[in-house]
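Exercise 7 asks you to align residues with tokens for two separate proteins.
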Amino acid sequence: MEIVREESRLTVVGIGADGWAGLTPAARDAVRRADIVLGAERQLKSLPEDLRTQAWPSPLLPALDEFLSEQTGRVCVLASGDPFLSGIATTLRDRGYALDVHPAVSSVTLARARLGWSFEETEVVTVVGRAVHRVARALAPNRKLLVLGGSATELRELLNARGYGDSALTALENLGADDERISDGWTRNPGPLTVFAVRCQGPGLPLIGLPDDAFEHDGQLTKRDLRASALARLAPNPGELLWDVGAGAGSIGIEWSRAHPLNRAVAIERDPARAERIQRNANTLGVPELQVVTGPAPEALAALPRPDAIFVGGGLTVPGVLDQCVETDARIVAHGVTLEAEQLLAAAYARHGGELQRISVEHAKPLGGFTGWTPSRAVTQWSWK
């Protein structure tokens, strides 16, 4: 069956650094048919003078819906390059607007063409309107990264702080324009229309299974072996949301978020000092969007969006915490180290089923002139789907 799309009142046209001259005939026609064209000042300056134009308000997002409602007739919105690549089209779509979209060649495509990098070997990280810490998640030896947004100074500081100061850093500025420039990103500060290319040289750090010393903590940390067991049962899928209840150092929520760039997590921690520490760990390990909620459970859970999975690492014996988690029908993993917590988990297992096990990890350590096994505290784990 043929699908017939109705023409939308709102058209998004991608425009490159070469401006009006680089638009296709179809894109030019879409701009000319509009009653008003909206965009950034630099984009509007490249258009013919006979067009009716208006620059976006600043800041844009708080005023976006009201601003668009004030426009009459056909509206054309200019976007940089591919409107769905960290562009305004995604924002408009997510707000419920119907769109006709005319994409241009993206800055990522142009950057890969200049560098000779294939699609398969290149990871794109956008920090447009986001924290530069997101780049840290993608750092790995010999990786090729393209970073959209941010400043050269911020990126250089992050690379040095993460041990990647020997990486090749290239600034690709005004790609596709007459004043295009490609230069060493370590030595100069290019303008705002710049893509940064990083050929990574530095220490390896796994996305999950991080060593315990990768986290700043005060002892309240789900250790690596137990973390691996919990995450295997939490079973993260792309785009899912996790509650990390009684988060401590935030290790479960952080590794959940590192598993895939679309994953989301909320860390709930009643201790303000620990909550601040969780945010520092999230920044350091490349998942700054991890949401930290400071407050006690179960009260702090009431206003949170419905999760796909829940880890309960602290506060298990507080009345109502486990019951409220079960009511969400999310996948649950809970850890207990005290007899009281173990009794609660045994009762949950009897009532709901799932899997109940005790995990004891022993490490080889020096013992006199020999080597012996040093046991860690046993943990009771209940998991339920």
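Second protein for Exercise 7:
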Amino acid sequence: MTTIDWDAAADSFDEEPDHGLRDPVVRSAWARRMETWLPTARSAVLDLGCGTGSLALLAAGQGHRVTAVDRSARMVEQARAKLAGTGTEVFVGDAAHPPVGKQRFDVILARHIVWLLPDPAAVLRHWFSLLRPGGRLVLVEGVWNGTGIPAADLTALLAEHTERVHHEPLSGDSRLWGKEVDDDRYALVARAEPPHRHTEVVDVHLILRRGSDVLLARRAGTGYADGLLHAPSGHAEDGEDVRAAMIREAAEEIGVELDPDELRVALVMQHRGPGGNPRMGWFFEADHDPARPPRNAEPDKCSELDWFPLDALPDDMVAYCRAGLDGYRAEQRFLIHWHEDDDTVAYAPRGTRRAVPLPVAAAPTGRLHHVELWAPDPAEADAEWGWLLGRLGHVPYQRWAQGRSWRRGDSYVVVEHTPGPTDGRHDSRRPGVSGLAFHVRDRATLDALLGDAPGHGWRPLSTGLPPYADESGPYAARLTNTAGHEVELVAPWSRTVPATAELGVGTGGLTR
């Protein structure tokens, strides 16, 4: 319990930027938060420990009926002067047991009060008794220089009364405090509702592809993760399926009207932010159409819209979005991404990886397990196959003196040198495996591979067919390496990538 003389502190109380809210930037930042914490409809708000009435004034200005209480007569005197003409009632009284009789309120607001209470559990029980059913308790608290109450402790105290507690970190928003802060400040919004069946917010995220690039938006002015990059995203509304939600959000955020058949499910991820509640995220993939270029359709929520390479994503991203894109690139279909309360919302390159991929049920019988290739020179094979398979999404798997392997999913390719086989180049015309064929995402990726291949020991071969003939079949390119191994790369036809005639590209297979 503090021994601060609040009457003596009243005259200088408003000098702190977050107390007096004299700075328009600070006042606006608190007003935006209050708009999200308080109901949109006109409501009865009880401000406990109101101080000089700065937050009560914001609530009144947003159309609410406000009652304010503070134990300091001097604070109340200043609050009455500040709130004159707003219809707000201001009383001298103990915030733990406010002098409001049998009145009930839609909202109880208390900033930096709970940490001062000798018996916070009993006080919270009384506060909930003053709320109408469905009302909300808004608590702004923190830990400063070792004093205060951690969010986890306060959330535990609230669990007796509600299952719905929203945790909102505040330390990272310097506009609220008029300065940068390095302590822990937060808000908890608890709803006065009886226990109910668990529900989760469903959000949708768009992975818009332009070849090997993806579209990202930089958040701004939202109060959450501002300054960080995130895929275009939003929440499904009541009665709305996830595909419809994605189409609506794409139109609202980036001005792109997508057809349902343009969307492909890329990943489903259950995620939880630091100190927050679980959410279910659906990630959809769609291809960029130059005829419908994306634009920043919500400049009040987004400061930048740009393309970034999927295989070299920036670090300044929202952590769970980065995890989703990394999982998508690794062809994972289901993820759990569960933050600990002291994690950062931002992706931390050296932080603990929270993403846990979930295996997908599948019948293993008949699927390819691995392919083995003989190579006359293991070092040469390591360089050539390592480059090509790496570009195709395989990762190094096994390594021994005379061999290497690269894995993708549960299948892998082995390239090794053993003393048994006859030395010399591989001849695809002899009986046996003629070559390997790999899917390539699109024509732009195929073109890029062809352009880089000669520098990594792979020479294009002619298919004997016209390049990029028409849209009736896939595009294919054939490559051979120093050892004579042949590989075919096959990409679907696409309207969204401009045509370029590359050596060795056509619609044929590996036959000569």
